[in-house]
Structure formats: structure tokens, C-alpha cells
């Protein structure tokens, strides 16, 4: 189940943190920090990028490849932190693609876009 402050499920957080070599106790705060940024910029994201509705309390924004680099710079994230966040968002997108029976489409999107899970919660 996703945390109420960001739309990433617990198992996804564990995998993303492990693969990016981020201490697991730091990842929830990192995801919250990024989600705050995404929510603050939600109107711009929705206006400028394609959106895909998720099956839960999030929309996915399909930004240009390399957009996570911009977010990482804006939020002063280390390479590992940025990698962990990117992995978490991509893995959640893939999981939701399976839930929606749209796996192939979602995987193709990840090959050409950076995908951001933006909570629909205020």
C-alpha cells in the first residue's frame, strides 16, 4: 500500500533503495521531499506534459528523458538519491501498468520518457 504522502508502495521502496545503495531509513524522507516538489509544481506538469491516470491516488507525468536530472539539480540530490527516486517512480509505474493490463505500453513509455508519480492528494 502506498504511503499517504507519496504514491510509492513499500515493496517498491525497498527494491529502489537497495538497488541505488541508499539507506532504507532515508528513502521515505527523500521520497516525501521529492513529492512535495512535484505537488508544488503539479499545475505546470499537468499543463506541459502528457498525463496517465494511475489505478490509485496518483497521476503519472511523462516528462522528457533526463527530467530527473533537472529535479535532482533543483533539490540538490546526490546521484544515488536521484537514482533511488527515479527507480522508485519507474518501478511503481511498471507495477501499475501490470495492474491496468498495459504493461507493454508502460514499458515503452519508460524507454523514451522519465515518469513521475504525482500524488493527487493535497
Give a brief description.
The chain is an alpha+beta fold and about 120 residues long. It is about 55% helix and about 20% strand.
Could you characterize the architecture of this molecule?
The protein has 122 residues and is an alpha+beta fold. It is 57% helix and 20% strand. The strands form two sheets. It has a three-stranded antiparallel beta sheet. A hairpin with a 2-residue loop joins strand 1 and strand 2. The radius of gyration is 13 Å and the shape is globular. It starts with a strand and ends with a strand.
H/E element sequence: EEHHHEEHHHE
Instruction: Specify the biggest β-sheet.
Output: 3 strands, antiparallel
Number of strand elements? 5
Q: Strand order of the main beta sheet, please? A: 3-4-5
Write down the Rg. 13 Å
Helicity level:
55-70%
- What class, by secondary structure content? alpha+beta
SS strand fraction: 15-25%
The stretches of 5 or more residues where confidence is low (pLDDT under 50) are none
> Kindly state the mean pLDDT as a whole number?
90
How many helices does DSSP assign?
A: 6
Shape, please? Answer: globular
- Terminal Cα separation, in Å? 18 Å
Characteristic key phrases:
single chain, 3-stranded antiparallel beta sheet, globular, 122 residues
What's the helix and strand layout?
Elements: E1 2-3, E2 6-9, H1 10-19, H2 27-40, H3 42-48, E3 50-53, E4 58-64, H4 67-74, H5 79-99, H6 103-112, E5 113-119
Antiparallel strand pairs: 1-2, 3-4, 4-5
Amino acid at each position: 500500500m502506498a504511503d499517504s504522502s507519496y504514491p510509492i508502495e513499500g515493496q517498491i521502496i525497498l527494491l529502489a533503495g537497495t538497488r541505488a545503495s541508499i539507506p532504507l531509513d532515508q528513502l521515505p524522507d527523500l521520497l516525501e521531499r521529492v513529492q512535495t516538489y512535484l505537488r508544488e509544481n503539479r499545475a505546470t506538469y499537468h499543463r506541459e506534459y502528457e498525463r496517465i491516470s494511475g489505478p490509485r491516488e496518483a497521476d503519472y507525468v511523462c516528462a522528457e528523458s533526463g527530467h530527473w536530472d533537472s529535479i535532482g539539480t533543483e533539490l540538490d540530490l546526490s546521484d544515488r538519491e536521484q537514482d533511488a527516486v527515479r527507480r522508485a517512480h519507474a518501478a511503481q509505474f511498471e507495477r501499475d501498468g501490470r495492474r491496468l493490463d498495459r504493461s507493454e505500453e508502460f514499458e515503452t513509455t519508460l524507454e523514451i520518457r522519465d515518469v513521475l508519480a504525482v500524488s493527487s492528494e493535497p
